[in-house]
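G., the chain you wanted modeled:
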Amino acid sequence: MPPTLAAVAALPQLGLRSLTGPLPATPVVWVAVSELEDPTPFLEGGELVLTTGMRLTAANAGGYVSRLVARGVAGLGFAVGVIHETVPAELLAAARDQGLVLLEVPRPTPFIAIGKAVSRVLAAEWYEDVTRAFQAQRELTRAALTGPGALVARLARLLGGWALLLDASGDVRHAEPARARDRAGDLAPELARLRRRPDRGGPAASVALAVPDDHIVVQRIGLGGRPRGFLAVGADAPLPPTAHTIVGAAVALLTLQSETPRTGRELRASLAALLLGRPDEGPAIPRGQVRVLACAGGAAVLDALESDAAGARCPALALAGHIAVIVPDGAVGTVERLLAGSGPIGVSDPASGDLRPALRQAEEALAAAGRSGRDVLHYSRLPGQGVLGLMDPGLAHAFADALLAPLRAEGLVETVRAYVAANGQGEAAARALGVHRHTLRSRMRKAAELLGRDPDDPAVRAELWIALSITSNGEEPIGHRGDSQSRAPRIP
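Predicted structure as tokens:
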């Protein structure tokens, strides 16, 4: 959150003094210096306005204050000893009458020092928010490897509230805590709104509502016209921007999982073929989603697999220095627990068809597990992996191409990339592109029309970030360091 007026005034190096009593917890979003009689056309609200009173008179003080109050500025800082030796009595009286916070700025304090101080606090807050969101993304990614229930539980803890995962019909799939299940019935009207497709554009991506003691956000899961499910979260206070980013990451993970085909029947058939026939060149390759485990436990691994029905259905092959095990994606957690204590284990990403890349992933994860002393290490948790490591390359490229196609046709991909990299900050994105902010705003309006969704929605930006990351390295494997080609915007 931005610093409050009280926090800014408390900075000892500035020497600011309140002339209108105790300072409220009003956030200061920026510092604006102006000597205009009416600076409000150049303000957005929330600024700490600084002035020397160059054009201030006894006659216009009341109107000046009225305009600032109507604009919603955070407060007014008046420099003494420059034009006026003291704050004019008419200005002070008007500020007190109209509820405008008035700070006295001593002569030795330059306005730029106040601007730099607020900028540093804002930068620190922004960095803390980005760090918190990044750490939350990592935690959600790790939880998603276990399943949607673990992801929902982790999300609720990160938000300090509750979370519900609903299927397309509105039935509860996972609730954290368990009593949150009781809220599902109240959300039915909101789910109907999210299912409805307007005459123009796509369906709403999310809805927000406030009820007594609860602030709730509901988002749809899935990319097509019909949602595959819904995620609802709630807390006792409005969610800050960082929390919306975290929820957007959770929705992106759940969407990716929901769009991945569940080919259980084909998987069982391919595993049966693998167990029943071994061609000369090697075992038959399963066509369903599986993972490869590289296990350093030797014969103990084979013994453990044979001791359990789930393990006995997993083909295993002794290789140089380790055992390779092919495990259905949904049984990975069970097999990991079965093999606990046998030695380090490396686990690949979900794969199908040619499993040689998955074997290499598992071997890399096993080597890293041995170096770090970890019992189990997933390839997606190695440096450079994250949300992108969860995706099937073919599905991921199809998703990215479909989402970005209208932008590519109008030459707007790099504009959107800069906007996403700047986390929706138009000024920073315009600087990165070398264009005027009005030009950027016009391009982003066009992009929103083409996409049929609002890029200022954190969930939409999360989807765009994923699509841009996937396409940044062409047809190469996704999920490696540097794919997003984005960096934090510089805050002066």
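The chain has four domains: 5-109, 140-259, 265-382, 388-471.

Shout if anything looks off.
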